[in-house]
Amino acid sequence: MLGVILTGHGSFATGLYEAAVQIMGEQAQFTAVNFPDGMSSEQLEHQLNDALTVCDKGDGVVFLTDILGGSPFRFAAMLSYQYPHIEVISGTNMPLLLEMLMQRDAIDSASFRLLAINNGKQGVTSLWHENQKSPATNKECQDGI
């Protein structure tokens, strides 16, 4: 199973983590590392290394980050250059996270990367766009998760 590490600015990571656990329950090899105001780059690097140690059971690890080029992304990228079994994905949203947690048992890290990008794009929509779909889809939106 692929390990998943959420990371981002402020409480981005733990916010998504807590929401995912609320919806799906506790998940193995899954953790969150925040980068709050006042945390040093060295502290972030140390916490990401610790998270990697916890989540890496040999099948690979994926870092899901908030924004491309931000400190959490850059430190995850530096780890990916050291370890070939790491993928780094930016622009994480809740639909991407939930789908990838469900898929990570059956795919490798490169397949995860491709699927995550597709799922992340599909997760961005609007009420207007959803209303243009079939009535069955509209009912799903009303019922919720």
Automatic annotation (TrEMBL):
Main location: cytoplasm
Keywords assigned: Cytoplasm, Kinase, Phosphotransferase system, Sugar transport, Transferase, Transport
Protein name: PTS galactosamine/N-acetylgalactosamine transporter subunit IIA
Annotated compartments: Cytoplasm
Keyword field contains Transport: yes
Pfam families listed in its UniProt record: EIIA-man (PF03610)
PTS EIIA type-4 domain: residues covered: 1-124
InterPro entries, A to Z: Bacterial_PTS_sugar_comp, PTS_EIIA_man-typ, PTS_EIIA_man-typ_sf, PTS_IIA_man
